[in-house]
Design a protein that fits this description.
alpha/beta; eight-stranded parallel sheet; globular
Length: 264
């Protein structure tokens, strides 16, 4: 039985998401139900960002969403927080600075494509903030404003910032290798990816990524409630990898990268 940590999850109200009504309804899940699924799957902890913070209508909604997630992390032992930062809403930096001091806030979450800014334009500011706060950065990646290769310049400029370019295999152009190539191009070995992509079910993708950059660069994530937790877990369990490699992906890499998870 593996210890498992989900480093990429969401919770909250999906009304701001751009999908259709039916799809958004499928994203709705109660906290009780989410916890039940995690327990049934043997997943001990989840690092969660608020859904309202991904597509916020205004700065108040973003700040309120982060506050709500902070409260949930303080009242539920299995919840850890990603604090969402939007550089177009500078107040989010001040809030994040305070929240990152908390025992349950593991780092900063950004989503350039949802919030309509180019990482190439705002990368210096975001990475400088993370460097000053000694914060790990988790970013959506694979779409036009957040291509994994665009992060390489900044990770090389800020070698003390550890970055997870999320969604292994995701590329708006159909290329499934972007995240792996970004990891290889980083001069200081400070880029990782997670498997929280529907593309991870492609036959051989996980195994190929391990061969290319080693299991030490992959973390387990589900992107729940967008993706089905048991399916994402099963993909790693049944991967053609050694038990040691699966264990690294499921939890050891997360604990090493995110020290606040040490007690999970």
């Amino acid at each position: 039985m593996y210890k498992i940590i989900d480093v990429h999850a969401h919770f909250g109200n999906p009304d701001g998401f751009p999908q259709g009504v039916l799809e958004k309804e499928m994203y709705r899940i109660s906290l009780k139900k989410l916890e039940e699924i995690y327990r049934l799957q043997g997943i001990q902890a989840a690092c969660i960002s608020p859904m309202e913070g991904i597509f916020p209508r205004n700065k108040e909604e973003l700040l309120d969403a982060n506050r709500c997630m902070e409260e949930l992390s303080q009242t539920h032992d299995w919840i850890y927080q990603w604090v969402v930062v939007n550089p177009l809403m500078p107040e989010s930096y001040y809030q994040a600075e305070k929240m990152l001091r908390g025992e349950k806030c593991v780092g900063v979450k950004i989503h350039p494509d949802a919030q309509k800014y180019d990482i190439g334009q705002w990368g210096d500011e975001i990475f400088s903030f993370c460097s000053n706060q000694k914060a790990v950065l988790l970013s959506h990646s694979g779409e036009m404003l957040s291509m994994p290769e665009h992060f390489v310049t900044f990770v090389n400029r800020f070698p003390d910032v550890q970055v997870i370019v999320a969604h292994l295999g995701c590329g708006y152009d159909g290329d499934i290798s972007h995240q792996v190539r970004a990891i290889r191009e980083a001069a200081k070995n400070n880029i990782y990816t997670d498997v929280s992509s529907a593309r991870s079910i492609l036959n051989g993708l996980i195994e190929w990524a391990v061969r290319e950059v080693s299991e030490k660069k992959l973390l387990f994530g589900t992107d729940t409630p967008l993706h089905h937790i048991p399916m994402m877990k099963k993909r790693i369990e049944t991967a053609e990898l050694t038990e040691k490699q699966k264990e690294a992906i499921f939890w050891k890499n997360a604990v090493q990268l995110l020290p606040k998870l040490a007690d999970v």
